[in-house]
Amino acid sequence: MSARDDILRRVREALDGVSPAVEVPPAPRAPDRGDLVALFVERVEDYRAVVTRCTAAGLGGAVADALDGRSSVVPPGLDLEVVGSLVDDGLTAVELDAIDAVVTRAAVGIAETGTIVMDHQPDQGRRAISLVPDLHVCIVDAVQVVADVPDAIALLDPARPLTWISGPSATSDIELDRVEGVHGPRTLHVVLVG
Fold first, then answer.
1. What percent of the chain has pLDDT over 70?
2. How much is the pLDDT for 181?
3. Which of 64, 141, 170, 185 could serve as a FRET partner for 27 with CA atoms 20 to 30 Å apart?
């Protein structure tokens, strides 16, 4: 008999007649949709982003208010007419840098983290347009808000490029002075529909 076999035999003998105590955790409560959306708004605002809530009928006006006359670019698949916006047809980085804002949709919003995920479908456009202009106006439908990251992952295609946005782009130097707009838009304005 090997030492391993001897140890396993002694463990079996010690456990003989002992019934395992199994604790069954309570079933998780399905989050209320209103609670999820409220949490999403709270967390997005914690990141110093602006959140505007509107109805589907008021979406055009809410986006126009968020842009406040700034020049803007939209992805070719955006299902919303944004007056005066350029439709991205492969604008260069220099051309994008001359534009003040971008308007996109999102693939999903995560309540727990206040994160917006883009998977760059036609209504979100290519990654460059969401990173170069100084203002990102991102449209999120309330039905797209999920509780947490695992819920979001379940909805996303891992073969698609993903951009995860948690507030405006920001970093801190060694003295912890916050600098915004270094790696993406300096301002994030979320338009929450529904």
1. 87
2. 53
3. 141
Residue 35 is given by DSSP the state H
- The answer to whether residue 182 scores a pLDDT higher than 60 is no
Can you read off the two tokens belonging to residue 14? Answer: 């010690």
Provide CB contacts within 8 A for 45, sequence distance 6+.
51, 114
Q: Give the N- to C-terminal CA distance of the chain in Å, as an integer.
A: 69
Q: Tell me what pLDDT residue 169 has.
A: 61
pTM of the model: 0.78
Q: Is the dihedral of CA 37, 138, 164, 126 positive or negative?
A: positive
Domain map of the chain by residue range? 30-193
d(CA 154, CA 146) in angstroms, rounded, equals: 10
Superfamily of domain 30-193: NagB/RpiA/CoA transferase-like (3.40.50.10420)
Helix residue ranges per DSSP H, the chain: 3-15, 33-46, 59-67, 93-97, 127-131, 149-155
- Residue 97: exposed, middle, or buried by beta-carbon count in 10 A (0-12, 13-18, 19+)? exposed
